Amino acid sequence: MIPRILLDTAAMPGGGGELRLFRRGDEFAIMIGSVELMTSRAAGSEEALARLACERIAGRRRPAMLIGGLGMGFTLGAALAALPGDAEVTVAELVPAVVGWARGPLAPLFAGSLEDPRVRVVEEDVAQTLARSSGAFGAVLLDVDNGPGGLAIESNDRLYAAAGLAAARAALRSGGVLAIWSSHPDHGFTRRLRDAGFAVDEVPVRSAGRKGARHHLWFGRRS
Fold first, then answer.
1. From CA 172, how far away is CA 165, in angstroms rounded?
2. Under DSSP, is residue 60 helix (H, G, I), strand (E, B) or coil?
């Protein structure tokens, strides 16, 4: 059996626990406590989040996208593959160590996406990015925590509360799309999105092939 090796740890801001980066053979995982937040074994739903968001803003001139959460780079990579050459992609990552991992042990997964001239990485809470970005984006992708029911940082919940959704809507251009990844469906959150002024489309996806874990995506269009 291939052993699992701890590569690094990083404290979550605000006393939210400790992230741990593991490698087992060619596979990587990021955990907090006993919860596996992400793994390189299954990236299908993260890639679908970006791909389907890009489809919803296709044809726009110089599209601007904000991605909340760098993770292992699968959302970013899928977005870059689908976006045109004049696009601008801002990635907001709360934990500086995650950016370091992306340029270090996880660099093979990123495959040079951080060097793409369309990409800008900011080390801050995506809520801060949204608060100062009125009408700046054609799409906002939130791949933060485990979805509306946060597991890693309680403060992530505010992104999915009424005030957070209002901030996301304000950061979007007319007709812009808010795309949200979750490990599970949440009917109450769907209602909250509609109450916040979004026309909502829900898409169930698999994390990997037909037998991967079931995940859930929301796409809310600003009318």
1. 11
2. coil
Residues 6+ apart with CB under 8 A from 100: none
Contact 110, 77 (CB under 8 A): yes
SS3 content of the chain, % helix, strand, coil (to 5): 30, 35, 35
User: 3-59 pLDDT, tens per residue?
Assistant: 999 999 999 887 678 999 999 999 999 998 888 888 998 889 999 999 999 999 999
pTM of the full structure? 0.93
Q: What is the length of the chain?
A: 223
Give the C-alpha distances (Å, rounded to integers) separating 14 from 54, 149, 155. Answer: 33, 18, 9
- Residue 179 — φ and ψ, nearest 5°? -115, 130
Look at residue 151 and tell me whether its pLDDT is greater than 50: no
Q: Specify burial of residue 60 (Cβ count, 10 A radius: 0-12, 13-18, 19+).
A: middle
Q: Looking up tokens 């403060």, which residue turns up? A: 155
Both structure tokens of 163:
């005030």
Six-digit token pair at 167? 């901030």
Per the CB < 8 A criterion, the answer to whether 91 and 76 are in contact is yes
Asked whether 28 and 105 are in contact (CB, 8 A), the reply is: yes
Q: What number of CA atoms fall less than 13 Å from residue 75's CA on the CB side?
A: 29
> Is residue 68 classed as helix, strand or coil in its secondary structure?
strand
DSSP letter, residue 63: -
Pairing of strands 35-39, 27-32: antiparallel
Q: What are phi and psi of 77, to 5 degrees?
A: -60, -40
8 A C-beta contact, residue 82 and residue 76: no
